[in-house]
Design goal:
Structural class of chain A: alpha/beta
Radius of gyration of chain B: 28 Å
Oligomer: heterodimer
Strand content of chain B: 5-15%
Largest sheet of chain B: 6 strands, mixed
Shape of chain B: flat
CATH class of the largest domain in chain B: Alpha Beta
CATH architecture of the largest domain in chain A: 3-Layer(aba) Sandwich
CATH topology of the largest domain in chain B: Rossmann fold
Strand content of chain A: 5-15%
Largest interface: A-B, 58 and 73 residues
CATH architecture of the largest domain in chain B: 3-Layer(aba) Sandwich
Distance between the termini of chain A: 50 Å
Number of strands of chain A: 11
Distance between the termini of chain B: 64 Å
Strand order of the largest sheet of chain A: 4-7-10-1-11
Amino acid sequence: MSRVYPFSAIVGQDQLKRALMIAAVDPSIGGVMVFGDRGTGKSTAVRALADLLPPIKTLRGCAFHCDPKRPPTCTSDCARRAPGVSPELETAPMPVVDMPLGATEDRVVGALDIEHALIRGEKRFEPGLLARANRGFLYIDEINLLDDNLVDLLLDVAASGENVVEREGLSLRHPARFVLIGSGNPEEGELRPQLLDRFGLSVDVRTPTDLAERVEVVKRRIAFDQDPSAFLELWAKPQARLRRQIVSAAKRLQTVAIPDRVLEAAARLCIAVGSDGLRGELTLMRVARATAAIEGAGQVTLTHLRAIAPMALGHRLRRDPLDEGGSAVRIERAMAEVFGP
Amino acid sequence: MTTKTEPPSRIADARLAAALFCIDPGGLGGVSLRAGHGPLRDQWIAAVRAMLPKGAPVVRLPFNISDDRLEGGIDLAASLAEGRLCRQASVLESLAGGVGLLPMAERLETGLAARLAAVMDHAASRSGTRPAFGLVALDEGLSPEEQPPTTLLDRLALRVDLTGDFERTDAITPFPRAEIAAAYGRLPDVAEPEDALVTAVCEVALAFGVASLRSVIFTLKVARVHAALAGRSAVGREDIAAAARLVLAPRATQAPAAPDTEDVPPPDDPQKDDSPSDAQPSESEHDGPRDEPENLSREEIAEILVAALRALLPELDAPVSHRRPARARSAEGGGSGGGAPTLSLRRGRPIAARAGTLSGGARLDLVATLRAAAPWQKLRAAPDGEARLALRKDDMRLRRFVRRAELTTVFVVDASGSTAFQRLAEAKGAVEQLLARAYVSRARVALIAFHHKGAGVLLPPTRSLTRAKRMLADLPGGGGTPLSLAMDAALSLALAERAKQRTPMLVFLTDGRANIDGRGEAGRGQAEADALTAARKVGASGVRSLFIDTSLRVRPDADRFAKAMGGAYAFLPLLESRAVAELVTREGGRALGG
């Protein structure tokens, strides 16, 4: 029985919730980076997401949650299936894997299964966190404090979508496609620009300073702690509605049309803010499309574009470490230029 | 009658905190106990043992606990000896319903803290399936910069501070175990907080700069537990005051504009005056449970909270620049870090393996282990002729890695006299340039300013340009030159950095004309003697230093200080941030190299 605080009951934090939903609808967007202080409910939101999302179908016994609809890509047992035998399927919850800050490379990549090696003399691979996160989400709290060698590794895996293990006499590869969710407080250390660039979206999360909102957060939390079952019951309907919304948005995603004038506006916006490369434009369009799908619209409009531009472009501006103005201001200015006031 | 409300003694509050914690260890998360090793701390821990239910585990978690032990895994040594698979249970499983003690919590790795926090969150969110546990973080930090990782602190409801002086007669005695058990039994019957209470706590927390909402929830929980201890069926006046003292006060980072507190005593004054009982609800309990819900209004509750906080936080009445929010102070550093090339058993570039036992997260080097075992196989062959590899503990070879060293540059800036403004501005410029440049090399920069009668850390070691800019936005200046105090402060910060496995380097920006001595008194002769002593201490510690002389003419004094510190000296009368940054970068390279 799951007793995770329901996603739909999270007070405020609209940007964060929206960003997570967009990433769930279109995983190709490339992850969400959450900037903010501690105790703002970042972790709560991410953990709640796992509970909100529909389960996935996988091959039974596959450590990598391989997708039955795709040709086998991993080297585990599921790929070595006897030809002609139809695989057994099972339903697994959407993987949302927490990667602890002090994780060793072995735990992330996977390593030789020492138990098997020493006791049975067999060489076997013990899958790591990357394997567990395949087809799901990988959540790294305080990603800005992550060891450099792990950052390099993540960059490589995120780019290639597969994890290549060459160590301790093991040689194998397995799929590792996941939505990366990072969080951190920029005051405690900045993020490597290369890593920041991988994220499709970035949101700023602040501790609410509005009294009414704070009171509501505390009240709901107390109600949840007091009687989780009753609280979940109370929120079951909104939770189900939100789940349906995400599922149907993911289904309709490819049918949402993007009119030329929206494409053009996106391009002009990217030029106006001076974001590097085409990646910004691509993400901008994908995010706008996912937003339209979530809202049930048949095509992307300028309103969609405008709503999501700050989170899709905010972290892509060319950095000037001594620029006092912040990226939000620059994007506002560019939007006013492109869309009119 | 006093005009100012006297809070209960620290000893009484420490005792009270222990009792509240023992009533509901899982619900309150834990206690951060800041104290050196000593009788009081031992008494406090003994009191916790005496108050927890009989048989409840109190486990000391090893400082360098491995993932296997933390989360359960294979016991390799036992497996090898037995020739079959032996598992070891997770330490946290053995904690269920009890308490874990975390020694040297101020040196806890952020990574481990994050994992502990995740387990605590998990235990709290699934309290139905796994009995929760409480943690006691034994914080032995000396300087304000040394404290347990904030990730962990945020999840421990109570703070107890047993540092400083106490009377010889002071002692912490446990409450009777039965009383604690009875209070636990009553806890579910204590009414959940009313809206007025929730709102008032939110309001006051916001006013005192307590940002984390977890702290608000803890305040409410502690108030309830306190009510249960006192035998009340709803949270009352004393419960609110106690929660404010134990939860909110240590977290306060600012004081709201005080409405003439000096003239008018807080309205609930009479209540407070008769109160040693405030700290010892057990006494009031003997008159039988007082079961009159007090029906306090939101304003009344807010007043009680503010009065309790003000009584404890006199120094917050005036705006202070040196007191930093505990939150912002933040134990940084993550899993990374390592002084001039540091050996690590877990991460980094691999180097030759060595013999050792598998603990503290060390990784076995299989090939080297097998190689070590190979020559002995004939001798060790089993009498039954079974062809099994015979591995002994001595054969084990551990992998070692070397990690890149990390440098922390501590600027110690003279903010005295008329040139203070310029020196500070250029120092600030140098800090920003270094940080902008150090973006990839991951160096840290800190800034200590000294003037008037003291030295203060204006910018704790950070990598973040964002943070540096915010904290250095306005800098104080003027007054005398307490050089020796500055050197002491710099040394203590440098040693704290070294304890975190980083390489500190001190950069002094001053003309070296000390005129305030080590006790804060004016007088050139004593001031210079003290400064020289302090400089020798820096020299003896082996911390690298660079003395940038900003006076207009070369004077022997400054050079003498530099020599006493065993550091480099540079004469830079036309102080300019770019030149400072250059010098520091060059010197920093040497600090890491040598």
